Amino acid sequence: MSDAVAECFLAALKAVEAQPRPLLPRAQLEAEERGVDVDLETLRELLLSDERGQELRTRLHLRLGAWDAVAEAPWAAGTAARTAQRRRRIYEKSGLTPLAAHLDSAMAVHGDTTVVIDAGSVAPWYPQPELSQREFYWPHYRDHLAARGWGPQMLLDLDEATTQVVERLARPDDASQYSSRGLVVGHVQSGKTANFTGSIAKAIDAGYRLVIVLTGTIEILRRQTQRRLDQELVGVENITLGLAPDDPDALAQVEYRDDPDWIEGNWMRHGTRPSLHGFPDIIRLTTRDDDYRELAQGIRTLELRKSDKSRPLYDPTNLFASDALVAVVKKQTHRLDALLTDLRRVSTQLREIPALILDDESDQASINTTNPKKWTEGQTERTSINERITDLLKLLPRGQYVGYTATPFANVFVDPADGEDLFPRDFLLSLTPPEQYMGIAAFHDDEDAAMSAEVTYATSGERAHVRNLVATEPDARDAELAAALDAFVLAGAVKLYREARTDSPGRFRHHTMLVHESVRTAEHRLTAERIQRLWNEAEFTGGTGMQRLRRLWEEDFAPVSAARGEDLPVPTDFDELKTFVAQTITRICESGRPPYIIVNGEKDINKEDVAFHQRPVWRVLIGGTSLSRGFTVEGLTISYYRRRTGAGDTTMQMGRWFGYRPGYRDLVRLYIGRNEPGARGSTIDLHDTFRGLMRDEEDFRAELGRYAEKVEGGAKFKLTPRDIPPLVSQHLPQLPPTSRNKMYNAELEVRRFVGRGQEPNAWAMTLGDVEHNYDAMTELASRAQTPFTEKGVDLGTQHYLHTVVTNQDLFAVMRRIHWMQSDYWRPELAYLQELQDTGGVQDWLLLMPQSRDRDLQRDLPGIGRRTVYKRARRPERGNVFGYVSTSAHRKHVNDLLGGYAETHPTRGVLLCYPVYTADLPDDDLGLRRCITLIPYLQAPAGAVPASGALIRFRVKDPTRADQAIIRASMP
Q1: Could you give the CA distance from residue 138 to residue 159 in angstroms, rounded to a whole number?
Q2: How would you class 623 by CB atoms within 10 Å of its CB: exposed for 0-12, middle for 13-18, buried for 19 or more?
Q3: How far does CA 450 lie from the centroid of its chain?
Q4: Tens digits of per-residue pLDDT, 373-402?
Q5: Is 846 helix (H, G, I), strand (E, B) or coil?
Q6: pTM for this structure?
Q7: pLDDT digits over 899-936, tens only?
Q8: What does residue 949 show for φ and ψ, rounded to 5 degrees?
Q9: Domains and their CATH numbers in the chain
């Protein structure tokens, strides 16, 4: 089938972009000019072809997805967006109904996965037909990503998510001015940069003419962000503005002249200077090598030209004839001061400039962390960066602020009553990463996988990718680091093996290992010396080295790749890798260089830069802060992590091993500390720490999604960003969601455990307290309406004993419990009190799961013969219990509550587990002093107030000294 046929359908598809119209007649008109024949069967065959149909498949998929997503249009005939009915309508209008089955299979309707919390501050304005005629940078960026291998669904998701951002900014040509505040929440290393690059592209197309991207506090991140924007958005024509294209001396001024991607033509090319065709040029105020500096005599660069000086800049006559200014600036005081100084000097009235300020890593440095208790009465004091960002927004009343972060807790704890601060008062978007993303869940099994009878490399991501670091003695710790270095070398050899068996030489341009033990630069040097010594002793290509690598291949890499390597080339025997091991060593130590690079802020003339854009990097990277917070470690395959931090968001940002690993996902290994020194002689399991943080994050996103669903479902209440802070949970008592100085303004009052249960784990542990709690919980059983039903009930494979207790009795008992912290379960107790006052729950079905294993049963005083469960307290978590309830038990709770919806609408379900931590004694007193009766509670769906809110929250009033900082609930 000729390329001409594909061109006919591509041209026809372009002709019907605005709305679905018959595609075949337009393709046939094109075919007449080219002398070919086309029909729907030709189209079907083309879509099934491997190569010639690729571009057409992508274009058609994108166009169908765009029509699917249109909210309302006359042609849609009332069909709802993203429904089967809408797709049928599209097929009818475009004449593609005969191909419906194939298109439904290959290009299925895809729902919007972005969760949006919106205050409704901005009237709908984007997208609109007249704006689509001005699109330039967005379609070019989308096509650039498609050329890099982005699939149609990823592009549709990005299109939808970026539209969700831009439509919530103020309309740039509106005569009235409004400055919105928003927050976009992604995942660590999940593609936030792609989202804000796409948002910038759409914003410039729509009329925004000053774009300021605030990066973190370190230069390597700013340079990485600048280069990516230059490569994927700004493009060659804008970078070379004013330079003669045929003048070698002029082009020598371009900072990317030696960049391999620039040389090889992998840079965005618009095909023309944008302004020659009525689109804005992009004027860069910063470059890869230069952060923002005062412009002095070059201040006119900031002057935005007006075609009609009698009209304001935001008037369409001026707006769409002016250039766009873009600056990528570190969050450092002197850089922001320089920008503020220059803006105050320009003659263009700042109130006329539609500006967009994107704050990458917006939970770092941007937050005001001054203590309200120390403020002068009636005067808000701000930290330096926060003050300068708010000053920028004061200077630019048409400035829109959008923060980007993977760890949003600090942002949502900003005081929403402070009108000048950065609280996301207008919108919050929670992004969903594509399936290819390796996030925290790839390294932590859910409870079902963890409790499975057979844990394999195929079923357990933890077993496949995680390797434990448990040693405490120096020699043993060296042995663990040496094992990680072996994995780094072996993984590199497998990559080279795969390159040799594909048509893409240089596919694995970078191959890196991360070593992160400390933030201290002095310790980085010591680690480098250790690595050099271990490297020298390894003798990778010698007999002992090869033996070690062979064992590692046979016992680790080969079985994992067999289970998770998909269709990737995998050696049948280690002998096939020997040559590639030698090649790997050569690449890593090329020209006699050390196997490592130290990456930190220390000035050292002997230190090598990490320059992923300039050359292939096959090295071990040693560092701390510089290798976290947004910086992408290209080709990262092996991570060696032993650093602990004091806040959840900081810890999550250390997870550079999250991200996309195309072609080598099965080779990824995380060597992580499971026995690290903690405070007061305790030890910390860093893997479990990340697991707890994963639950914090999952709960937060799930709560957002649940609220958003209620709003979309027509509930009477509307969640706005001001209601978001109470959705933050804290699963690790010793690790708050963010640092304490970012949590001054939040106080959680009530958590209503509806739709998701609550399981307290911070039970007091002294003998007297344990005995007291045992007596309290057995008193609950004694107050039951009926004795335990000894016959019990079977749900699935699980057997339960059961009875019913009143909410009044449950509340009375839970108030008496002794916790490790006096106010530990206060928000949940407030809910039980509320249920008592409103009658929302009359009683609780109390279930005690029973095992058929008689060895697990004991005669418990006051209760009877029951199954007991052994669970450990977790010293690294402050001696709280590990999780007791299982997903199977919780499913039964949900099933029971669903069945009670009509028969017992005011009945909740309570699981009760007798838990012990050490060997059980035989006497009654001993049992009372070592058994803790731990409940898991879930209220019925109707046990919520009329508003539908699951959590009640108030912003802390800084004038009241008696209020404490956030008290986040725990499981």
Answers
A1: 9
A2: buried
A3: 23
A4: 777 766 788 889 999 999 999 999 999 999
A5: strand
A6: 0.77
A7: 898 899 999 999 999 999 887 777 778 788 889 999 99
A8: -70, 135
A9: 1-110 (no CATH), 112-371+380-430 (3.40.50.300), 447-683 (no CATH), 753-943 (no CATH)
